[in-house]
Amino acid sequence: MKTRNKEYRYDLDGKEYRLIIQYKNVRRLSLRPRGEEIYASAPFLLPEREVFSFVESHRDWLRKALQRQQQAEDRIWQGEGEVWLWGRKRPLTVVYGAPQLYVGEERVLFFSRRRTKEALIKEFYALAAQLLAEEVKKEESSYLHFLRSHLYLQRPEIRYHSAKSRWGSCSYKQNRIFLNAFLIHYPQECLTAVLYHELCHFFVPNHSKAFYALLLGVFPDYRQAERILKQKGNL
Fold first, then answer.
1. Number of structural domains found in the chain
2. Where are the alpha helices (DSSP H) in 78-116?
3. 81 three-state secondary structure
4. Inside any domain, residue 142
5. Closest to 181 (Cα-Cα) out of 96, 123, 139, 94
6. Angle at the Cα of 1 (from 17 to 234), degrees rounded to 5?
7. N or C of the chain: less Cβ packing under 10 Å?
Protein backbone atom coordinates (compact mmCIF):
# COMPACT_ATOMS: atom_id res chain seq x y z
CA MET A 1 0.00 0.00 0.00
CA LYS A 2 1.13 3.54 -0.77
CA THR A 3 2.03 5.87 2.10
CA ARG A 4 -0.71 8.43 2.70
CA ASN A 5 -0.60 11.54 4.82
CA LYS A 6 -3.21 13.45 6.78
CA GLU A 7 -2.49 16.90 8.16
CA TYR A 8 -3.96 18.62 11.23
CA ARG A 9 -3.30 21.59 13.45
CA TYR A 10 -2.01 20.68 16.88
CA ASP A 11 -1.72 23.02 19.87
CA LEU A 12 1.10 22.53 22.36
CA ASP A 13 1.48 25.10 25.14
CA GLY A 14 -0.29 27.76 23.10
CA LYS A 15 1.83 27.27 19.97
CA GLU A 16 0.34 25.75 16.84
CA TYR A 17 2.17 22.95 15.02
CA ARG A 18 1.40 21.01 11.85
CA LEU A 19 0.64 17.43 12.88
CA ILE A 20 1.29 15.17 9.89
CA ILE A 21 0.06 11.60 10.28
CA GLN A 22 1.87 9.29 7.86
CA TYR A 23 0.12 5.97 7.35
CA LYS A 24 2.73 3.50 6.12
CA ASN A 25 3.93 -0.07 6.35
CA VAL A 26 5.11 0.04 9.99
CA ARG A 27 4.20 -2.09 13.00
CA ARG A 28 4.06 0.59 15.68
CA LEU A 29 3.42 4.27 16.24
CA SER A 30 6.30 6.72 16.43
CA LEU A 31 6.72 10.50 16.69
CA ARG A 32 9.29 12.78 15.08
CA PRO A 33 9.18 16.52 15.83
CA ARG A 34 10.92 18.75 13.31
CA GLY A 35 10.76 22.52 13.71
CA GLU A 36 7.11 23.57 13.53
CA GLU A 37 5.98 20.15 12.33
CA ILE A 38 5.27 16.93 14.21
CA TYR A 39 5.31 13.69 12.21
CA ALA A 40 3.42 10.66 13.47
CA SER A 41 4.08 7.37 11.67
CA ALA A 42 1.22 4.91 12.02
CA PRO A 43 0.25 1.46 10.64
CA PHE A 44 -2.18 1.65 7.73
CA LEU A 45 -5.25 0.23 9.50
CA LEU A 46 -4.81 1.94 12.87
CA PRO A 47 -7.87 4.05 13.83
CA GLU A 48 -7.22 7.77 13.81
CA ARG A 49 -8.41 8.17 17.41
CA GLU A 50 -5.59 5.88 18.55
CA VAL A 51 -3.02 8.06 16.78
CA PHE A 52 -4.33 11.18 18.54
CA SER A 53 -4.38 9.35 21.85
CA PHE A 54 -0.74 8.34 21.32
CA VAL A 55 0.26 11.93 20.51
CA GLU A 56 -1.58 13.25 23.57
CA SER A 57 0.09 10.69 25.84
CA HIS A 58 3.49 11.92 24.62
CA ARG A 59 2.94 15.66 25.13
CA ASP A 60 5.69 15.89 27.76
CA TRP A 61 8.14 14.04 25.51
CA LEU A 62 7.26 16.30 22.56
CA ARG A 63 7.68 19.39 24.72
CA LYS A 64 11.18 18.31 25.84
CA ALA A 65 12.25 17.19 22.34
CA LEU A 66 11.15 20.49 20.77
CA GLN A 67 12.86 22.41 23.56
CA ARG A 68 16.14 20.56 22.94
CA GLN A 69 15.91 21.32 19.23
CA GLN A 70 15.25 25.00 19.94
CA GLN A 71 18.16 25.27 22.38
CA ALA A 72 20.54 23.66 19.89
CA GLU A 73 19.35 26.00 17.15
CA ASP A 74 19.68 29.08 19.39
CA ARG A 75 23.27 28.18 20.28
CA ILE A 76 24.17 27.99 16.60
CA TRP A 77 22.76 31.39 15.59
CA GLN A 78 24.21 33.10 18.66
CA GLY A 79 27.65 32.47 17.20
CA GLU A 80 28.92 29.15 18.53
CA GLY A 81 27.41 25.71 18.34
CA GLU A 82 27.43 22.48 16.38
CA VAL A 83 25.81 21.60 13.10
CA TRP A 84 25.52 18.46 10.99
CA LEU A 85 27.22 19.01 7.60
CA TRP A 86 27.58 16.18 5.07
CA GLY A 87 26.76 13.64 7.77
CA ARG A 88 29.28 14.85 10.37
CA LYS A 89 28.65 16.97 13.45
CA ARG A 90 31.14 19.84 13.42
CA PRO A 91 31.66 23.04 15.41
CA LEU A 92 30.09 26.03 13.67
CA THR A 93 31.11 29.65 14.10
CA VAL A 94 29.06 32.56 12.80
CA VAL A 95 31.34 35.41 11.65
CA TYR A 96 30.32 38.89 10.51
CA GLY A 97 31.30 39.29 6.86
CA ALA A 98 30.33 38.81 3.22
CA PRO A 99 28.01 35.77 2.84
CA GLN A 100 29.98 32.55 2.61
CA LEU A 101 29.77 29.02 3.99
CA TYR A 102 33.14 27.40 4.50
CA VAL A 103 33.14 23.71 5.36
CA GLY A 104 36.49 22.59 6.75
CA GLU A 105 37.53 19.20 8.01
CA GLU A 106 37.12 20.20 11.64
CA ARG A 107 35.01 23.38 11.62
CA VAL A 108 32.30 25.20 9.66
CA LEU A 109 32.52 28.98 9.26
CA PHE A 110 29.35 30.84 8.32
CA PHE A 111 30.01 34.42 7.23
CA SER A 112 26.99 36.71 7.21
CA ARG A 113 26.00 40.33 7.80
CA ARG A 114 22.52 39.35 8.91
CA ARG A 115 21.50 40.22 12.46
CA THR A 116 18.29 38.35 13.25
CA LYS A 117 18.03 34.61 13.74
CA GLU A 118 15.41 34.28 10.99
CA ALA A 119 17.58 36.13 8.47
CA LEU A 120 20.65 34.08 9.42
CA ILE A 121 18.79 30.81 8.92
CA LYS A 122 17.45 31.93 5.53
CA GLU A 123 20.92 32.93 4.35
CA PHE A 124 22.52 29.76 5.71
CA TYR A 125 20.24 27.54 3.62
CA ALA A 126 20.63 29.74 0.57
CA LEU A 127 24.40 29.15 0.82
CA ALA A 128 23.79 25.47 1.57
CA ALA A 129 21.81 25.23 -1.67
CA GLN A 130 24.90 26.44 -3.56
CA LEU A 131 26.95 23.63 -2.03
CA LEU A 132 24.27 21.12 -2.98
CA ALA A 133 24.27 22.46 -6.54
CA GLU A 134 28.03 21.92 -6.72
CA GLU A 135 27.60 18.29 -5.62
CA VAL A 136 24.76 17.72 -8.09
CA LYS A 137 26.97 19.16 -10.85
CA LYS A 138 29.49 16.39 -10.14
CA GLU A 139 26.73 13.85 -10.80
CA GLU A 140 25.55 15.52 -14.00
CA SER A 141 27.22 13.27 -16.53
CA SER A 142 25.97 10.16 -14.69
CA TYR A 143 22.34 11.22 -14.32
CA LEU A 144 22.16 12.61 -17.87
CA HIS A 145 23.45 9.27 -19.14
CA PHE A 146 20.73 7.53 -17.10
CA LEU A 147 18.02 9.78 -18.56
CA ARG A 148 19.24 9.41 -22.13
CA SER A 149 19.51 5.64 -21.80
CA HIS A 150 15.74 5.73 -21.18
CA LEU A 151 15.19 8.11 -24.13
CA TYR A 152 14.65 11.22 -21.99
CA LEU A 153 16.77 13.76 -23.86
CA GLN A 154 16.08 16.97 -21.94
CA ARG A 155 18.34 18.38 -19.23
CA PRO A 156 16.12 18.83 -16.14
CA GLU A 157 16.12 22.13 -14.28
CA ILE A 158 17.08 21.62 -10.63
CA ARG A 159 15.94 24.06 -7.96
CA TYR A 160 16.38 24.13 -4.18
CA HIS A 161 14.11 24.98 -1.26
CA SER A 162 14.25 24.77 2.52
CA ALA A 163 10.78 23.43 3.34
CA LYS A 164 10.81 20.86 6.14
CA SER A 165 8.21 18.49 4.78
CA ARG A 166 9.72 16.84 1.67
CA TRP A 167 13.24 15.90 0.63
CA GLY A 168 12.44 16.34 -3.03
CA SER A 169 9.73 16.65 -5.65
CA CYS A 170 9.51 16.80 -9.42
CA SER A 171 7.38 17.99 -12.30
CA TYR A 172 7.62 15.95 -15.48
CA LYS A 173 5.61 18.52 -17.45
CA GLN A 174 7.90 21.37 -16.38
CA ASN A 175 11.06 19.24 -16.61
CA ARG A 176 11.94 20.38 -13.11
CA ILE A 177 13.23 18.83 -9.89
CA PHE A 178 13.20 20.41 -6.44
CA LEU A 179 15.71 19.35 -3.76
CA ASN A 180 15.61 20.28 -0.10
CA ALA A 181 18.53 22.40 1.14
CA PHE A 182 18.28 20.51 4.46
CA LEU A 183 20.07 17.66 2.67
CA ILE A 184 23.27 19.58 3.46
CA HIS A 185 23.09 17.96 6.92
CA TYR A 186 23.32 14.43 5.56
CA PRO A 187 26.02 12.36 3.81
CA GLN A 188 26.42 13.13 0.09
CA GLU A 189 24.91 9.76 -0.84
CA CYS A 190 21.59 10.93 0.63
CA LEU A 191 21.56 13.86 -1.80
CA THR A 192 22.30 11.45 -4.65
CA ALA A 193 19.55 9.11 -3.46
CA VAL A 194 16.91 11.87 -3.45
CA LEU A 195 18.11 13.13 -6.84
CA TYR A 196 17.72 9.71 -8.46
CA HIS A 197 14.44 9.12 -6.65
CA GLU A 198 12.98 12.19 -8.37
CA LEU A 199 14.61 11.37 -11.72
CA CYS A 200 12.99 7.93 -11.66
CA HIS A 201 9.60 9.57 -11.24
CA PHE A 202 10.05 10.96 -14.75
CA PHE A 203 9.47 7.37 -15.91
CA VAL A 204 7.32 5.84 -13.13
CA PRO A 205 5.01 8.32 -11.34
CA ASN A 206 4.17 6.09 -8.36
CA HIS A 207 6.10 4.05 -5.79
CA SER A 208 5.36 0.67 -7.33
CA LYS A 209 7.69 -2.32 -7.60
CA ALA A 210 8.62 -1.10 -11.08
CA PHE A 211 9.68 2.25 -9.62
CA TYR A 212 11.96 0.71 -6.99
CA ALA A 213 13.39 -1.75 -9.50
CA LEU A 214 14.40 1.19 -11.67
CA LEU A 215 15.72 3.21 -8.73
CA LEU A 216 17.73 0.38 -7.18
CA GLY A 217 19.09 -0.48 -10.60
CA VAL A 218 20.60 2.97 -11.04
CA PHE A 219 21.42 3.60 -7.35
CA PRO A 220 21.82 0.29 -5.43
CA ASP A 221 22.59 2.05 -2.11
CA TYR A 222 19.22 3.81 -2.05
CA ARG A 223 17.80 1.85 0.89
CA GLN A 224 20.80 2.64 3.07
CA ALA A 225 20.52 6.37 2.30
CA GLU A 226 16.77 6.22 2.95
CA ARG A 227 17.37 4.75 6.41
CA ILE A 228 19.82 7.54 7.25
CA LEU A 229 17.30 10.20 6.25
CA LYS A 230 14.66 8.62 8.46
CA GLN A 231 16.88 8.11 11.50
CA LYS A 232 18.77 11.37 11.93
CA GLY A 233 17.57 14.83 12.78
CA ASN A 234 18.39 17.92 10.76
CA LEU A 235 20.61 19.71 13.24
1. 2
2. none
3. strand
4. yes
5. 123
6. 35
7. N
